[in-house]
Each structure stands twice: as structure tokens, then as C-alpha cells.
């Protein structure tokens, strides 16, 4: 007998969304890692300029996140993600055809708009339309699949660039969005909000009122602080570990553990979902970040602590992806989920785009120990802001879900 979960609208939406997440993250976010150097060698453009264009795209994605959330909430994930797939294809084709730094920059700016409409925040909004009571489980499964994007596309980019060159590789990635992502996104059912859903709870506020909510600002600060920390480690983990006098072998082992421990954290969250609320998952995961930073600080005296740091950081990062997707519904209202997610994710996207440059400046000016102390403080501030967000949520604000009919 077929499992009823596999026939549910939430699970069907999950498997339609999952391949697009691997492709979108792999081509728009991770692809540049192994293509930047060949682009520089082929064109003579500077590496700072190449990565600067990429960062500009990330910054525009942050600016577009609130608007993308409103668009997805108004027209549904089917329409918004399909538009994102088209824009992603056009942007990657534009990168492949770029004849100079300015056209390369313009293509990355278009890619930034596409990221706002295709990455996790957009997929979570679409999934929320269908999953309802299965939302946390479906979101965890989606991030488990999406977590393989770097595993697939880092070696694929390296191999294809050697076989075809970077321009044809990017054209191939553009084709993936049209031939794979677009049909899958178009296959999502249309969702029309029921006219009867007119009762709005105190938590389900219009976006202007939401921005006046203390819970919103607590959550936004928490996401921004953890994104600064995560963006720094993504770019400079090797340098920070080397500053702690960790051996190259132990450095490689530690950074290799980031991905598997993210998956392990998400699996554990899924297993404990019936017993551990999103609130307490968030408390624990946020507290693990500054703890991991302290372990890295102490690794100069005990290098084996670098492995424990990597395990704690990876698991925390994996769980926080789920928490960032679930908390807006609990704190700001389920009916306005897409809008709320767009607004709370914007600070994190800004922070992740700026973190590598800010951390590089900090490392150059103050050294590794001071930078790690600063990251520890960011982690503590993120935990405190998350605690504040839940304490600031009105006790009378129940979750309220707009019922939808599928056509």
C-alpha cells in the first residue's frame, strides 16, 4: 500500500521543489567557487572584481527579499518560482555571454533577483502553501536534499569547466533551469486563498504593522547575527583554523565535517520534532554557535578541539535553517508567512553578503583571536535576540493558517 504521506499535497510539493533547490543553490550560489579562477585567467578581469559582482548580486537578493515574499504570498509559489527559474536561466546565460566587467556585473544583479525567487525562502513559502501540519517535516526534508548542492555542483563545476570551459558550463547551468526547474515549478498546484479566511489574528498583521512588532526585530537581529558569523566561517574557516596553529590535516578534516554535521543536525531535529518545539530547537542551536567559537579559541592549546568546533558549528547551522523557516510563522503569523519570511530573511542575506569582506578587514587589523572573540559576541547577541523575540510574542497570538483550495 502506498504511504499516505507520499500522496499528501505537502509531500508532492516537496519532491517538486527539491531538485530545483539543488540546482538553484548549486548554480547561483556555489558555482562561482570553481569558476572564478578560470574566468579571471580567460578574461584578465580581477578576482576582487569577479567576486565583487557576485557580492553585488547577493546584496540585491537581500534588497529584493521582502518584495519577493510579498509577490509569492500574493501570487503563489508556482508563479513566483517559475519566474525565478526564467530569470536564473537568463542571468546565467548573461554571465556566459559577458564581454566585460560591466555586463558581468549586470548579469550578477539579475542573478540576485533570481536568487530571491528561487532559494530556500521562496521554496519555504511555496511549501507552506501545501504542507500545513507537515510543514516542519517537509522543510527538514527539503533542506536535507538542498544540502547536497555544494556536494554535487563543486565537483561538477570543476569537471565541466575542464571539459567545456566556463562559458559553456554556465550555458549548461542556464539550460538546467529551463529544462528541469521550470517544468517542476510549473507543476506545483495553483493555490487560491479561500474567501472565508477574513479573520485576522493579532499575529497575522499587515507588513507595516509587522515591522513595528518587537518579535520581528528580535528575530531579524538573531538572523543577522548568525548570518554574519556563518558568512565569516564560510569564507575564512581555513584562515581562522590556521591562526589557531591547527595542522593542515586537521583543518581539512574540520572543514569537511561542516556539511555532514549540517545533515546530522537536520536529521536529529526531524527525529525530535514531536518532542522539541521550534522555540527550544532555536534556543539550543543559537547557543551552540558561541560555544563553538569558544572551542575554536581554545584550539591553540588543544588542536583536537577544532574537530569538536566543526561538529557543533555544522549541526547548529543545519538546525538554524529549519528554525529560520519555522519561527516567522510562530512569531508573526501563519497567514502572512511569505511576507514575514521575506522581511526577516533580508538582514541575514545582507549580512552573509558583507561578512567575508568585513571579516577579512578584521583579520588584517586585529588578528584571529580578536576576530573570534567578536564572532563569539555575535553568537551570544544572536541567542539573546532570539530569546527576546519569543518572549516579545503576544501570549494571545495564536497560529492562524489561511485555508487554501487547490485547483
TrEMBL record:
Its main location: membrane. It is found in: Membrane. Keywords: Membrane, Transmembrane, Transmembrane helix, Transport. It is a multi-pass membrane protein. InterPro entries: MFS (IPR011701), MFS_Riboflavin_Transporter (IPR052983), MFS_trans_sf (IPR036259). It holds the Pfam family MFS_1. The keyword Transferase does not apply. The chain crosses the membrane at residues 12-32, 52-72, 79-99, 105-127, 139-158, 164-184, 215-239, 245-268, 280-298, 304-323, 335-354, 366-390. PANTHER family: RIBOFLAVIN TRANSPORTER RIBJ. This is MFS transporter. It comes from Chitinimonas viridis.
Amino acid at each position: 500500500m502506498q504511504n499516505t504521506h507520499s500522496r499528501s499535497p505537502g509531500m508532492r510539493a516537496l519532491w517538486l521543489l527539491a531538485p530545483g533547490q539543488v540546482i538553484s543553490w548549486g548554480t547561483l550560489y556555489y558555482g562561482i567557487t570553481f569558476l572564478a579562477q578560470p574566468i579571471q585567467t580567460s578574461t584578465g578581469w580581477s578576482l576582487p572584481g569577479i567576486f565583487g559582482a557576485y557580492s553585488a548580486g547577493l546584496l540585491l537578493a537581500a534588497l529584493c527579499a521582502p518584495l519577493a515574499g510579498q509577490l509569492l504570498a500574493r501570487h503563489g509559489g508556482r508563479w513566483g518560482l517559475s519566474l525565478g527559474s526564467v530569470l536564473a536561466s537568463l542571468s546565467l546565460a548573461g554571465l556566459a555571454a559577458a564581454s566585460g566587467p560591466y555586463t558581468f556585473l549586470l548579469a550578477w544583479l539579475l542573478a540576485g533577483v533570481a536568487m530571491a525567487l528561487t532559494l530556500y525562502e521562496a521554496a519555504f513559502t511555496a511549501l507552506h502553501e501545501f504542507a500545513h501540519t507537515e510543514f516542519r517535516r517537509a522543510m527538514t526534508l527539503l533542506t536535507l536534499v538542498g544540502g547536497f548542492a555544494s556536494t554535487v555542483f563543486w565537483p561538477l563545476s570543476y569537471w565541466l569547466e575542464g571539459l567545456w570551459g566556463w562559458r559553456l558550463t554556465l550555458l549548461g547551468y542556464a539550460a538546467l533551469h529551463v529544462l528541469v526547474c521550470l517544468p517542476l515549478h510549473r507543476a506545483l498546484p495553483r493555490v487560491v486563498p479561500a474567501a472565508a479566511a477574513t479573520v485576522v489574528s493579532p499575529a497575522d498583521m499587515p507588513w507595516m504593522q509587522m515591522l513595528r512588532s518587537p518579535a520581528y526585530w528580535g528575530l531579524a537581529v538573531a538572523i543577522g547575527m548568525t548570518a554574519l558569523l556563518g558568512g565569516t566561517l564560510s569564507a575564512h574557516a581555513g584562515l581562522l583554523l590556521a591562526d589557531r596553529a591547527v595542522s593542515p590535516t586537521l583543518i581539512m578534516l574540520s572543514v569537511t565535517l561542516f556539511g555532514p554535521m549540517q545533515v546530522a543536525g537536520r536529521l536529529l531535529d526531524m527525529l525530535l520534532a514531536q518532542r522539541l518545539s521550534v522555540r527550544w530547537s532555536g534556543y539550543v542551536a543559537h547557543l551552540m554557535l558561541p560555544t563553538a567559537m569558544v572551542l575554536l579559541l581554545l584550539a591553540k592549546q588543544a588542536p583536537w578541539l577544532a574537530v569538536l568546533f566543526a561538529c557543533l558549528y555544522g549541526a547548529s547551522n543545519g538546525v538554524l535553517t529549519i528554525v529560520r523557516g519555522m519561527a516567522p510563522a510562530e512569531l508573526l503569523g501563519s497567514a502572512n508567512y511569505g511576507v514575514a519570511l521575506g522581511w526577516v530573511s533580508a538582514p541575514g542575506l545582507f549580512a552573509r553578503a558583507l561578512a567575508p569582506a568585513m571579516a577579512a578587514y578584521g583579520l588584517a587589523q586585529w588578528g584571529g583571536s580578536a576576530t573570534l572573540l567578536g564572532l563569539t559576541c555575535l553568537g551570544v547577541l544572536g541567542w539573546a535576540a532570539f530569546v527576546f523575540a519569543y518572549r516579545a510574542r503576544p501570549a494571545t497570538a495564536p497560529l492562524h493558517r489561511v485555508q487554501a483550495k487547490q485547483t
